[in-house]
Amino acid sequence: xxPQDDRQPxxxxxxxxxGGAYAVEFAFFGSLLIAVMLILIQYAVVHLARQxxxxxxxxxxxxxxxxxxxxxxxxxxxxxxxxxxxRALMCGSSGAPAVFFKCDNLKIxxxxxxxxxxxxxxxxxxxxxxxKTWSKTFGTNFQCPGSQNVxxxxxxxxxxxxxxxxxxxxxxxFGDGAVLLQSASVFRVEPYNKSPTGAx
Length: 200
Description:
Blueprint: H1 3-16, H2 21-66, H3 68-72, H4 79-91, E1 106-113, H5 119-123, E2 127-128, E3 133-134, E4 150-159, H6 164-167, E5 179-188
Antiparallel strand pairs: 1-4, 2-3, 4-5
């Protein structure tokens, strides 16, 4: 019998041998399952972070609506310091503390419109489309809402993603793969008494 004839049964055994098939299937489908689970978890984190941002913004809106924030943050403070205090109110030990995002990644913009709704202030983007970074003008404005003023409060968070390639569809994103979460509130400030050291 020639060596070639000896190799024929070995080839048939190799073709028919199903040993290790489950390992190959698990390597293929297991990696796919892990990717799907990762995407679902990331979607859940994005959804919870958006809800957390909206709840935190409600805390700031309530303080501005009633004038309590203006009364404790007078006109002697700079816009940067006032926004820092407002961010601390949103992220601190409030009724809706920030859990799903870092407060360092939170920016707030407060503007007033004496004549009504200001569409320009509402539609201004928080992300610079040319540089894919924060807009230089967003998060620097604090126009103190006085009594009966119409206030526009916008909050935005830069949220890093675990699986950015799958979750950036339909969302404004940064150059590093993080996405932008936004929330806004428009309201008319209630009449409030100005304190000697605070308010607008």
